[in-house]
Design a protein that fits this description.
Elements lengths: L1 H8 L3 E2 L5 E2 L3 H108 L1
Antiparallel strand pairs: 1-2
Length: 133
């Protein structure tokens, strides 16, 4: 016991297997426990980093998918706008064509009325000519 006390004072201790140690058994046990806790912490940290890496990858994929859908939506919207503009242009062309045809119809109506008057005049002339004979 006295030898153990002298060794203890020098910072040397015997463990449960009677091996000579620099740390006292209680301190050695706490150190081993701390080492295990640190190892567990490092493992958990690595696992957390892996999970985080997967999450970041997933978020990146989602971001790319969202960007792709956004571009499709912009394309569809632009297509709709161009179709609407085409329809507008077609409508204007048709309106112009209708106006042109109405003017043509009016010219034909006037020409028809004129021809009807000429025909009536000629029929009257023919009738007068026949009656004179």
């Amino acid at each position: 016991a006295m030898a153990q006390a002298a060794l203890g004072a020098a910072g040397l201790h015997f463990d449960e297997l009677n091996k000579l140690r620099v740390l006292e058994p209680e301190m050695a046990a706490q150190t081993a426990l701390l080492r295990e806790q640190c190892r567990a912490f490092v493992d958990k940290t690595a696992e957390f980093q892996n999970i985080l890496g997967s999450l970041i990858e997933l978020v990146d994929q989602l971001a790319k998918a969202v960007e792709s859908e956004k571009m499709k939506a912009i394309g569809a919207r632009n297509l709709l706008k161009s179709i609407a503009k085409q329809r507008e242009a077609q409508e204007q062309q048709l309106q112009a064509l209708i106006a042109e045809k109405k003017m043509q119809l009016e010219r034909y109506r006037i020409e028809y009325e004129t021809l009807c008057k000429i025909e009536a005049d000629q029929n009257e002339f023919i009738d007068q000519f026949i009656f004179q004979k």
